[in-house]
Amino acid sequence: MYFDRCDTNEVSYVDYACGWNRKIMKFIGIWPDERGFAYASSYRVLFLIGFMFFFITLPQTINLYFIWGDFELIVENLSVANMTTTIATLKAVTFWSNGRYYFLRKKRDMKILLSRMENDRKEATTEENVRKMTRIANISRRITAGSIIMCNFLVFTYVTLTTLMLPYTGRVLYYHGYFPYDTSIFPNFELTLIGQITAELYAANSYTTVDTFMTMLMLHVCGQFSSLRKKLSTLRCENNNNFRTDLARIVEKYDMLNRYAETIEDRFNGMLLIQMLGCTIQLCVQSYQVISAFVDDNQGLLVIRLFFFAVYTTYVMLHIYLYCYVGQKLLSEGIKVAYAAYDCNWYNLSPKEAKNLTIIMSRTQIASRITAGKFCSFDHQLFGNVSNKFYSSNYNE
Protein backbone atom coordinates (compact mmCIF):
# COMPACT_ATOMS: atom_id res chain seq x y z
CA MET A 1 0.00 0.00 0.00
CA TYR A 2 1.12 3.58 -0.69
CA PHE A 3 1.68 4.50 2.96
CA ASP A 4 4.43 1.89 3.14
CA ARG A 5 6.54 3.94 0.72
CA CYS A 6 7.92 6.07 3.57
CA ASP A 7 8.46 3.26 6.07
CA THR A 8 10.81 4.67 8.70
CA ASN A 9 12.80 1.45 8.62
CA GLU A 10 13.71 2.06 4.96
CA VAL A 11 13.85 5.84 4.49
CA SER A 12 13.75 8.91 6.69
CA TYR A 13 10.33 10.51 6.78
CA VAL A 14 11.91 13.97 6.59
CA ASP A 15 13.90 13.02 3.50
CA TYR A 16 10.78 11.60 1.88
CA ALA A 17 8.62 14.65 2.67
CA CYS A 18 11.30 17.11 1.51
CA GLY A 19 11.65 15.52 -1.91
CA TRP A 20 13.88 17.65 -4.14
CA ASN A 21 14.27 20.27 -1.40
CA ARG A 22 16.88 18.26 0.46
CA LYS A 23 19.08 17.70 -2.60
CA ILE A 24 18.94 21.32 -3.74
CA MET A 25 19.46 22.73 -0.24
CA LYS A 26 22.44 20.44 0.29
CA PHE A 27 23.90 21.56 -3.02
CA ILE A 28 23.59 25.28 -2.25
CA GLY A 29 24.66 24.74 1.38
CA ILE A 30 21.62 25.68 3.46
CA TRP A 31 20.32 22.25 4.47
CA PRO A 32 20.17 22.16 8.32
CA ASP A 33 22.72 19.40 8.82
CA GLU A 34 25.17 19.09 11.68
CA ARG A 35 27.61 21.92 11.05
CA GLY A 36 30.40 23.64 12.91
CA PHE A 37 32.88 26.44 12.51
CA ALA A 38 35.67 24.00 11.64
CA TYR A 39 33.88 22.40 8.67
CA ALA A 40 34.33 23.86 5.18
CA SER A 41 30.88 22.57 4.13
CA SER A 42 29.34 25.01 6.59
CA TYR A 43 30.41 27.90 4.38
CA ARG A 44 29.33 26.55 0.99
CA VAL A 45 26.43 28.97 1.07
CA LEU A 46 28.91 31.86 0.90
CA PHE A 47 29.71 30.79 -2.67
CA LEU A 48 26.01 31.03 -3.51
CA ILE A 49 25.66 34.43 -1.82
CA GLY A 50 28.80 35.70 -3.54
CA PHE A 51 27.47 34.89 -7.01
CA MET A 52 24.11 36.54 -6.32
CA PHE A 53 25.66 39.59 -4.67
CA PHE A 54 28.53 40.34 -7.07
CA PHE A 55 26.80 39.54 -10.37
CA ILE A 56 23.30 40.94 -9.76
CA THR A 57 22.52 42.64 -6.45
CA LEU A 58 25.60 44.87 -6.10
CA PRO A 59 25.92 45.89 -9.80
CA GLN A 60 22.23 46.67 -10.14
CA THR A 61 22.05 48.52 -6.83
CA ILE A 62 25.08 50.67 -7.75
CA ASN A 63 23.55 51.27 -11.16
CA LEU A 64 20.52 52.88 -9.49
CA TYR A 65 22.77 55.84 -8.65
CA PHE A 66 23.66 56.40 -12.31
CA ILE A 67 20.13 55.99 -13.67
CA TRP A 68 18.42 57.96 -10.91
CA GLY A 69 15.95 60.30 -12.54
CA ASP A 70 15.14 57.96 -15.44
CA PHE A 71 11.94 56.32 -14.26
CA GLU A 72 11.87 53.71 -17.04
CA LEU A 73 15.37 52.43 -16.23
CA ILE A 74 14.61 52.34 -12.49
CA VAL A 75 11.49 50.28 -13.15
CA GLU A 76 13.50 47.89 -15.32
CA ASN A 77 16.13 47.60 -12.57
CA LEU A 78 13.58 46.71 -9.89
CA SER A 79 11.24 44.62 -12.01
CA VAL A 80 12.86 41.19 -11.82
CA ALA A 81 16.45 40.46 -10.87
CA ASN A 82 17.44 43.04 -8.26
CA MET A 83 14.48 42.57 -5.90
CA THR A 84 14.22 38.81 -6.43
CA THR A 85 17.93 38.21 -5.87
CA THR A 86 18.02 40.44 -2.80
CA ILE A 87 15.08 38.56 -1.27
CA ALA A 88 16.67 35.22 -2.19
CA THR A 89 19.94 36.27 -0.53
CA LEU A 90 18.07 37.27 2.61
CA LYS A 91 16.23 33.94 2.66
CA ALA A 92 19.43 31.95 2.24
CA VAL A 93 21.18 33.85 5.04
CA THR A 94 18.17 33.61 7.37
CA PHE A 95 17.65 29.90 6.80
CA TRP A 96 21.38 29.14 7.01
CA SER A 97 21.76 31.08 10.27
CA ASN A 98 18.91 29.12 11.87
CA GLY A 99 20.57 25.82 10.92
CA ARG A 100 24.07 26.71 12.09
CA TYR A 101 25.60 26.02 15.46
CA TYR A 102 26.35 29.10 17.51
CA PHE A 103 28.46 29.23 20.65
CA LEU A 104 26.17 31.87 22.15
CA ARG A 105 22.97 30.06 21.25
CA LYS A 106 23.38 26.36 21.86
CA LYS A 107 20.72 25.12 19.52
CA ARG A 108 19.89 24.62 15.87
CA ASP A 109 16.25 25.51 15.36
CA MET A 110 15.75 23.82 11.99
CA LYS A 111 17.53 20.67 13.14
CA ILE A 112 15.27 20.49 16.19
CA LEU A 113 12.13 20.91 14.08
CA LEU A 114 13.20 18.16 11.68
CA SER A 115 13.96 15.84 14.60
CA ARG A 116 10.47 16.40 15.95
CA MET A 117 9.02 15.59 12.54
CA GLU A 118 10.92 12.31 12.48
CA ASN A 119 9.77 11.47 16.02
CA ASP A 120 6.15 12.19 15.09
CA ARG A 121 6.38 9.70 12.25
CA LYS A 122 7.89 7.03 14.52
CA GLU A 123 5.13 7.61 17.08
CA ALA A 124 2.42 7.13 14.42
CA THR A 125 1.52 3.50 15.03
CA THR A 126 -2.03 3.29 13.66
CA GLU A 127 -2.68 2.81 9.97
CA GLU A 128 -4.89 5.91 9.87
CA ASN A 129 -2.16 8.19 11.23
CA VAL A 130 0.46 6.71 8.90
CA ARG A 131 -1.84 7.27 5.93
CA LYS A 132 -2.49 10.86 6.98
CA MET A 133 1.20 11.67 7.42
CA THR A 134 2.10 10.05 4.11
CA ARG A 135 -0.65 11.99 2.34
CA ILE A 136 0.73 15.24 3.76
CA ALA A 137 4.25 14.22 2.73
CA ASN A 138 3.04 13.51 -0.81
CA ILE A 139 1.36 16.93 -0.99
CA SER A 140 4.59 18.56 0.18
CA ARG A 141 6.57 16.68 -2.44
CA ARG A 142 4.20 17.79 -5.22
CA ILE A 143 4.35 21.41 -4.08
CA THR A 144 8.14 21.25 -3.97
CA ALA A 145 8.49 19.62 -7.39
CA GLY A 146 5.98 21.98 -9.03
CA SER A 147 7.56 25.11 -7.55
CA ILE A 148 11.12 24.12 -8.47
CA ILE A 149 10.11 23.25 -12.03
CA MET A 150 8.25 26.55 -12.35
CA CYS A 151 11.08 28.72 -11.00
CA ASN A 152 13.67 27.11 -13.28
CA PHE A 153 11.29 27.39 -16.22
CA LEU A 154 10.95 31.08 -15.43
CA VAL A 155 14.72 31.60 -15.50
CA PHE A 156 15.04 29.50 -18.66
CA THR A 157 12.28 31.50 -20.36
CA TYR A 158 13.83 34.86 -19.50
CA VAL A 159 17.33 33.80 -20.55
CA THR A 160 16.07 32.26 -23.80
CA LEU A 161 13.97 35.28 -24.78
CA THR A 162 16.79 37.69 -23.92
CA THR A 163 19.34 35.61 -25.84
CA LEU A 164 17.11 35.55 -28.92
CA MET A 165 16.94 39.35 -28.77
CA LEU A 166 20.74 39.80 -28.70
CA PRO A 167 21.01 40.15 -32.52
CA TYR A 168 18.65 43.14 -32.29
CA THR A 169 19.76 44.69 -28.99
CA GLY A 170 23.51 44.15 -29.35
CA ARG A 171 25.91 42.95 -26.64
CA VAL A 172 23.59 43.72 -23.75
CA LEU A 173 23.71 41.86 -20.43
CA TYR A 174 20.74 39.90 -19.17
CA TYR A 175 20.55 42.27 -16.18
CA HIS A 176 21.89 45.79 -16.61
CA GLY A 177 24.30 46.84 -13.89
CA TYR A 178 27.53 48.66 -13.14
CA PHE A 179 30.69 46.54 -13.39
CA PRO A 180 34.25 47.79 -12.80
CA TYR A 181 35.35 46.48 -16.22
CA ASP A 182 34.26 46.71 -19.85
CA THR A 183 31.47 44.15 -20.31
CA SER A 184 31.14 44.70 -24.06
CA ILE A 185 34.38 42.96 -25.07
CA PHE A 186 35.36 39.30 -25.26
CA PRO A 187 35.58 37.37 -22.92
CA ASN A 188 34.24 39.79 -20.28
CA PHE A 189 30.80 39.83 -21.84
CA GLU A 190 30.47 36.04 -22.09
CA LEU A 191 31.84 35.41 -18.59
CA THR A 192 29.52 38.02 -17.08
CA LEU A 193 26.53 36.42 -18.82
CA ILE A 194 27.49 33.03 -17.39
CA GLY A 195 27.88 34.56 -13.94
CA GLN A 196 24.46 36.23 -14.15
CA ILE A 197 22.77 33.02 -15.31
CA THR A 198 24.41 31.08 -12.47
CA ALA A 199 23.46 33.75 -9.94
CA GLU A 200 19.83 33.82 -11.10
CA LEU A 201 19.57 30.02 -10.98
CA TYR A 202 20.92 30.12 -7.43
CA ALA A 203 18.48 32.92 -6.55
CA ALA A 204 15.45 31.18 -8.05
CA ASN A 205 16.16 27.87 -6.33
CA SER A 206 17.06 29.32 -2.92
CA TYR A 207 13.97 31.59 -3.08
CA THR A 208 11.76 28.60 -3.90
CA THR A 209 13.22 25.92 -1.65
CA VAL A 210 12.96 28.05 1.51
CA ASP A 211 9.27 28.73 0.78
CA THR A 212 8.43 25.10 0.03
CA PHE A 213 10.46 23.88 3.02
CA MET A 214 8.50 26.14 5.37
CA THR A 215 5.27 25.01 3.71
CA MET A 216 6.25 21.39 4.42
CA LEU A 217 6.93 22.20 8.08
CA MET A 218 3.60 23.98 8.53
CA LEU A 219 1.62 21.26 6.76
CA HIS A 220 3.19 18.75 9.13
CA VAL A 221 2.08 20.81 12.14
CA CYS A 222 -1.44 21.06 10.72
CA GLY A 223 -1.56 17.29 10.23
CA GLN A 224 -0.45 16.74 13.82
CA PHE A 225 -3.14 19.11 15.08
CA SER A 226 -5.69 17.13 13.07
CA SER A 227 -4.53 13.82 14.60
CA LEU A 228 -4.54 15.34 18.08
CA ARG A 229 -8.07 16.63 17.52
CA LYS A 230 -9.18 13.10 16.60
CA LYS A 231 -7.65 11.72 19.81
CA LEU A 232 -9.37 14.36 21.92
CA SER A 233 -12.78 13.84 20.33
CA THR A 234 -12.60 10.07 20.97
CA LEU A 235 -11.24 10.43 24.49
CA ARG A 236 -12.82 7.96 26.93
CA CYS A 237 -14.37 9.76 29.88
CA GLU A 238 -15.77 6.81 31.84
CA ASN A 239 -12.55 5.97 33.68
CA ASN A 240 -11.15 8.94 35.62
CA ASN A 241 -7.60 7.61 35.90
CA ASN A 242 -7.27 6.89 32.19
CA PHE A 243 -8.90 10.21 31.34
CA ARG A 244 -6.38 12.22 33.32
CA THR A 245 -3.41 10.36 31.85
CA ASP A 246 -4.66 10.58 28.26
CA LEU A 247 -5.65 14.23 28.63
CA ALA A 248 -2.23 15.09 30.07
CA ARG A 249 -0.55 13.54 27.03
CA ILE A 250 -2.82 15.44 24.67
CA VAL A 251 -2.12 18.74 26.43
CA GLU A 252 1.62 18.07 26.36
CA LYS A 253 1.48 17.31 22.64
CA TYR A 254 -0.66 20.39 22.00
CA ASP A 255 1.86 22.65 23.76
CA MET A 256 4.71 21.06 21.82
CA LEU A 257 2.97 21.71 18.48
CA ASN A 258 2.33 25.32 19.44
CA ARG A 259 6.00 25.75 20.32
CA TYR A 260 6.88 24.16 16.97
CA ALA A 261 4.75 26.72 15.10
CA GLU A 262 5.95 29.61 17.27
CA THR A 263 9.59 28.71 16.54
CA ILE A 264 8.95 29.04 12.81
CA GLU A 265 7.06 32.29 13.35
CA ASP A 266 9.76 33.83 15.57
CA ARG A 267 12.63 32.91 13.28
CA PHE A 268 11.08 33.89 9.93
CA ASN A 269 8.45 36.60 10.43
CA GLY A 270 11.02 39.33 9.64
CA MET A 271 12.05 37.54 6.45
CA LEU A 272 8.41 37.18 5.42
CA LEU A 273 7.79 40.89 5.98
CA ILE A 274 10.64 41.84 3.64
CA GLN A 275 9.44 39.25 1.12
CA MET A 276 5.93 40.72 1.13
CA LEU A 277 7.27 44.26 0.68
CA GLY A 278 9.57 43.10 -2.11
CA CYS A 279 6.79 41.21 -3.87
CA THR A 280 4.56 44.29 -3.66
CA ILE A 281 7.21 46.43 -5.37
CA GLN A 282 7.83 43.76 -7.99
CA LEU A 283 4.17 43.35 -8.87
CA CYS A 284 3.75 47.13 -9.14
CA VAL A 285 6.70 47.67 -11.47
CA GLN A 286 5.84 44.59 -13.53
CA SER A 287 2.28 45.91 -13.99
CA TYR A 288 3.67 49.29 -15.03
CA GLN A 289 5.92 47.65 -17.62
CA VAL A 290 3.01 45.73 -19.12
CA ILE A 291 0.85 48.85 -19.30
CA SER A 292 3.74 50.73 -20.91
CA ALA A 293 4.11 47.95 -23.48
CA PHE A 294 0.61 48.70 -24.82
CA VAL A 295 1.57 52.29 -25.67
CA ASP A 296 5.14 51.54 -26.73
CA ASP A 297 5.99 52.08 -30.37
CA ASN A 298 7.66 48.66 -30.54
CA GLN A 299 4.61 46.41 -30.49
CA GLY A 300 6.68 43.38 -31.49
CA LEU A 301 7.77 42.94 -27.85
CA LEU A 302 4.22 43.08 -26.49
CA VAL A 303 3.54 39.33 -26.68
CA ILE A 304 6.90 38.50 -25.08
CA ARG A 305 6.35 40.95 -22.21
CA LEU A 306 2.80 39.75 -21.62
CA PHE A 307 3.91 36.11 -21.57
CA PHE A 308 6.74 36.75 -19.12
CA PHE A 309 4.49 38.94 -16.96
CA ALA A 310 1.85 36.19 -16.79
CA VAL A 311 4.36 33.50 -15.80
CA TYR A 312 6.21 35.69 -13.32
CA THR A 313 3.04 37.04 -11.68
CA THR A 314 1.67 33.50 -11.35
CA TYR A 315 4.90 32.39 -9.69
CA VAL A 316 4.91 35.26 -7.16
CA MET A 317 1.19 34.95 -6.35
CA LEU A 318 1.45 31.18 -5.89
CA HIS A 319 4.17 31.62 -3.29
CA ILE A 320 2.12 34.22 -1.45
CA TYR A 321 -0.84 31.85 -1.58
CA LEU A 322 1.27 29.00 -0.15
CA TYR A 323 1.91 31.04 2.99
CA CYS A 324 -1.70 32.19 3.18
CA TYR A 325 -2.98 28.63 2.75
CA VAL A 326 -0.79 27.06 5.45
CA GLY A 327 -1.38 30.08 7.70
CA GLN A 328 -5.14 29.68 7.39
CA LYS A 329 -4.93 25.92 7.88
CA LEU A 330 -2.75 26.32 10.97
CA LEU A 331 -5.21 28.81 12.46
CA SER A 332 -8.29 26.70 11.73
CA GLU A 333 -6.74 23.41 12.89
CA GLY A 334 -5.70 24.98 16.18
CA ILE A 335 -9.18 26.39 16.80
CA LYS A 336 -10.88 23.09 15.89
CA VAL A 337 -9.25 21.49 18.93
CA ALA A 338 -11.86 23.36 21.00
CA TYR A 339 -14.66 21.69 19.05
CA ALA A 340 -13.00 18.31 19.60
CA ALA A 341 -13.04 18.93 23.35
CA TYR A 342 -16.76 19.65 23.14
CA ASP A 343 -17.39 16.49 21.07
CA CYS A 344 -15.92 14.10 23.62
CA ASN A 345 -18.18 12.59 26.30
CA TRP A 346 -17.68 15.42 28.77
CA TYR A 347 -21.09 14.82 30.32
CA ASN A 348 -19.73 11.64 31.94
CA LEU A 349 -17.11 13.65 33.84
CA SER A 350 -17.26 15.17 37.26
CA PRO A 351 -17.47 19.00 37.36
CA LYS A 352 -13.84 19.19 38.46
CA GLU A 353 -12.64 17.11 35.51
CA ALA A 354 -14.88 18.97 33.06
CA LYS A 355 -13.13 22.21 34.00
CA ASN A 356 -9.95 20.82 32.47
CA LEU A 357 -11.68 20.64 29.11
CA THR A 358 -12.91 24.21 29.56
CA ILE A 359 -9.35 25.39 30.10
CA ILE A 360 -8.27 23.62 26.91
CA MET A 361 -11.12 25.20 24.95
CA SER A 362 -10.09 28.64 26.21
CA ARG A 363 -6.44 28.04 25.31
CA THR A 364 -7.26 27.07 21.73
CA GLN A 365 -8.80 30.48 21.10
CA ILE A 366 -5.23 31.83 21.04
CA ALA A 367 -4.18 29.83 18.01
CA SER A 368 -0.73 29.92 16.44
CA ARG A 369 -0.28 32.18 13.42
CA ILE A 370 2.26 32.90 10.71
CA THR A 371 2.78 36.64 10.28
CA ALA A 372 4.75 39.10 8.21
CA GLY A 373 6.79 40.88 10.85
CA LYS A 374 3.89 40.73 13.34
CA PHE A 375 2.01 43.24 11.16
CA CYS A 376 -0.44 40.90 9.43
CA SER A 377 -1.33 37.21 9.55
CA PHE A 378 -1.12 34.98 6.52
CA ASP A 379 -4.62 33.68 5.81
CA HIS A 380 -7.23 33.57 3.05
CA GLN A 381 -8.43 37.05 3.89
CA LEU A 382 -4.95 38.49 3.34
CA PHE A 383 -4.58 36.74 -0.01
CA GLY A 384 -8.04 37.94 -1.05
CA ASN A 385 -7.13 41.52 -0.19
CA VAL A 386 -3.82 41.30 -2.08
CA SER A 387 -5.48 39.74 -5.13
CA ASN A 388 -8.36 42.23 -5.22
CA LYS A 389 -6.09 45.26 -4.94
CA PHE A 390 -3.64 43.91 -7.50
CA TYR A 391 -6.20 43.04 -10.17
CA SER A 392 -8.42 46.04 -9.52
CA SER A 393 -5.42 48.40 -9.88
CA ASN A 394 -4.50 46.81 -13.21
CA TYR A 395 -8.09 46.98 -14.38
CA ASN A 396 -8.51 50.62 -13.41
CA GLU A 397 -5.29 51.60 -15.12
UniProtKB/TrEMBL annotation:
It is a multi-pass membrane protein. It comes from the Eukaryota. The chain crosses the membrane at residues 45-68, 80-103, 143-166, 302-326. GO terms for biological process: sensory perception of smell; signal transduction. GO terms for cellular component: plasma membrane. Keywords: Cell membrane, Membrane, Olfaction, Receptor, Sensory transduction, Transducer, Transmembrane, Transmembrane helix. InterPro entries: 7tm6_olfct_rcpt. It is found in: Cell membrane. Belongs to the insect chemoreceptor superfamily. Heteromeric odorant receptor channel (TC 1.A.69) family. This is Odorant receptor. It comes from Vespula maculifrons.
